Protein: Cytochrome P450
Amino acid sequence: MFTRSIEDDATAGGARGESVAVNLRHYLSTMLFNIVGNLMLSRDLLHSQSKEGYEFFQAIGKTTVWAGKPNVADFLPFLKWLDPQGLKKNMLKDLGRAIEIIEGFVKERIEKHKPNEKKAKDFLDTLLEFEGDGKDWQEKIPHEKIIIIIMEMFIAGSDSTSTIVEWAMAELLRKPEAMRKVKEELNEVVGVNRNVEEIDIEKLPYLQAVLKETLRFHPPVPLLVPRNTIHDTDFMGYHIPKDTQVLVNVWAIGRDPDSWKDPLSFKPERFLGSSIDYKGQNFELIPFGSGRRICVGMLLAQRIVLLGLASLIQCFDWELVKGSIPETLDMRENIGMSVRKLVPLNVIPKRRLRTMAT
Ligand code: HEM
Structure:
């Protein structure tokens, strides 16, 4: 579906005599938002008929921008009351609007709910029907909490996942040899007469290695979620007092020459035949965190990214825009809630798959 829109837009641009290059980020962000919307709320939020969908998309997008901006008041707390960059004001406005919209979705679901109705359940149904077993949680989940959980899924799930696909594509375009290997693997396993499917993914070890290498080199959440020490701690010769905020720099760990050979080169091959994985057990690769607070969306992200990446590469041959060459592709990073490419990837798709999913 998203490869179809890429092809349609590129073809329409070409027919108008305009550039056929597409901004990949746009398609990835909308695809991710739609997937999360469908899983959480069974809604095509970006469908033209969806009244609040686009407004919600924008409100969540702005919320992540405000959340990712370095706040001067964190370093100079006496300025807190002034809100010198207007971050709190903007955050309250956009987050407030996003909450209002989700609240509307939740109310609508409760009003339309028919007991014992037989239909596939989405995440919202599951949250509404949940009842604690009396051990960890006694009762039903209050509606205010349901709204926050749903919102967290959109905020935590959309940007991080679309970002990693964009980085992977950028790295593969910089390394034509690696791109060639992904294509060869896809040709062998899937061919060009049908679309790649989820079931194919386990037969694509090089593609899986590309994902691991991209997560090592460009972890979308570079400092994980901040921790606080609950008591005085001595760790590797350092004394960390109680109540200290601790950040885990997975970006630096991924580039540490003590952990990785030739860490500044993008080499998916390093993971072929290696048992190192990102599931929280190998501490040199923890882009999803580790332990109790490990990313709850890790397996979902893995499925979406691998299938999304495989579809992009199977459906199209990608070319850089005129004047851009692999060696000088801009790979600078933009600081935010997720570390994105500073300059979005504009690339030209040339269709290679015979039939395209609609
Ligand atoms: C490549 C994609 C993703 C990356 C790299 C990523 C990374 C992370 C990281 C590093 C954390 C914090 C873990 C820690 O501090 O130990 C986190 C938390 C979280 N992630 Fe993800 N994530 C991704 C995709 C997703 C998706 C698709 C969803 C859901 C739709 C999701 C939902 C969450 C939630 C709800 C939390 C908070 C968990 C908590 O509060 O304990 N993430 N993620």
